[in-house]
Structures are given as structure tokens and as C-alpha cells.
Design a protein that fits this description.
The chain has seven helices and four strands. It has 205 residues and is an alpha+beta fold. Strands 1-2-3-4 form a four-stranded antiparallel sheet.
Length: 205
């Protein structure tokens, strides 16, 4: 994969692919990882999204990714479609920005649902949908998160560590914010998006 496509693939994959940990659910913040993987393995997007608040993850992740990539986009170092998207997020008027964010959330949600229901994300199928050029460079191999440990916890909020593993693109450390909502733990935010993008850019040089 070309470096620019690899960067685009990582930026999107870090926002949308979660996770893999076999076994029964534990009693605590890592429950969210267990349940999300059950959704992937069962080809059940609804079950997956019980474990991941996609709107919350994207609300933070899109902003952080765009800010981290702004300089590269302005210097012409990114894929043109990704560059246009990044600059749209950081430079657009509030109205245009809201429209673009809504469009991106819709595109990503469609891509996730298709990848899970087809079995592609579990490594059991080929996801040919998601026609948006933004998804062109994403590896079709299995995606996993291997849980680490609970780094901190205060009441119904916690931070956990994990490793993101794309069997076609490599492995990356993650820090995730999770919250207990209605008795169920949910992934709410990827805390180190900017660090991960900087690392991807460094390796792409």
C-alpha cells in the first residue's frame, strides 16, 4: 500500500474498528471490548454498537484527526480526497462543517455495518461495499483490539489500554475512554488519536 493510502487507512481504521477478545465478559470496563467483539463475530452491527458509542467516538476522533493532519493536507502530502476532507473539517464555515461531519458519520456508519454483517471485519468475508473513496485504502484483513488493562477508574468512567491489530497494516497501542451507561460499559473515545497519526506519518516518510 502506498504511504499516503496507508495513512488514510489508519486514520479511518482507528476511528471505526473495535475489537477482539475471546471469552466471557468480565465485570468491569473491559466489558465493552468483549461485547464489541461478540458483535463482530456474530455479524451483528446492533450488538457491536451497544458496546461502542459511534457518535461520541467520531465527534472527538474526527476533530483530532483533522487537526493532526491539517499541515500535511495543506502541503499536498495526503491523498487528494483525504486532504479535501481534512481541510473541509478545519476550514469550513460552521454550516458546511456540520454538513460534512454528518456526511462522514453516515458514510462511516454504513461502512461499519456492512463490514460487520458481511463478516469482513472478522476475517470471514470480503467487504466490497462502502463505495466512498475515503475507504479505498483500508485493509480488508481482520481487525482486532487486544485489551491491556484498566489504567484508571472513577465511578462509572475509566481509561483502558489496548492494542489495535490490523492483519494487513500492523499493530498500534491505544488508550480508550469507556463509560458505564445503563449498566453496560461503552467505548466513548480514543484518547491518543493524534499520537497514532503522528506515528503513522513518521513511518510513512
Amino acid at each position: 500500500m502506498k504511504p499516503r493510502l496507508r495513512i488514510m487507512a489508519l486514520c479511518l481504521a482507528l476511528l471505526i474498528f473495535l475489537p477482539a477478545w475471546p471469552g466471557q465478559a468480565a465485570q468491569g470496563p473491559l466489558d465493552a471490548l468483549v461485547l464489541a467483539q461478540k458483535g463482530i463475530e456474530a455479524r451483528d452491527p446492533d450488538l457491536f454498537q451497544q458496546a461502542l458509542d459511534l457518535n461520541a467516538v467520531l465527534a472527538h476522533g474526527l476533530d483530532e484527526a483533522a487537526n493532526a493532519l491539517r499541515g500535511q493536507a495543506r502541503n499536498g502530502n495526503l491523498d487528494p480526497v483525504l486532504a479535501m476532507t481534512v481541510l473541509g473539517l478545519v476550514d469550513a464555515s460552521p454550516q458546511n462543517r456540520e454538513f460534512l461531519e454528518t456526511l462522514l458519520v453516515s458514510e462511516i456508519t454504513t461502512f461499519i455495518n456492512s463490514g460487520i454483517s458481511s463478516g469482513s471485519f472478522a476475517g470471514n468475508g470480503t467487504n466490497r461495499s462502502g463505495a466512498s473513496p475515503l475507504f479505498k485504502g483500508i485493509s480488508r484483513e481482520r481487525k482486532e483490539i487486544l485489551p491491556g488493562k484498566v489504567l484508571s477508574r472513577k465511578g462509572d468512567r475509566a481509561t483502558v489500554s489496548a492494542t489495535f491489530r490490523d492483519h494487513g497494516a500492523g499493530s498500534y497501542p491505544l488508550r480508550l475512554a469507556v463509560e458505564e451507561v445503563g449498566g453496560r460499559w461503552q467505548i466513548k473515545r480514543i484518547l491518543n488519536v493524534s499520537e497514532l497519526i503522528r506515528e503513522a506519518l513518521r513511518h510513512a516518510r
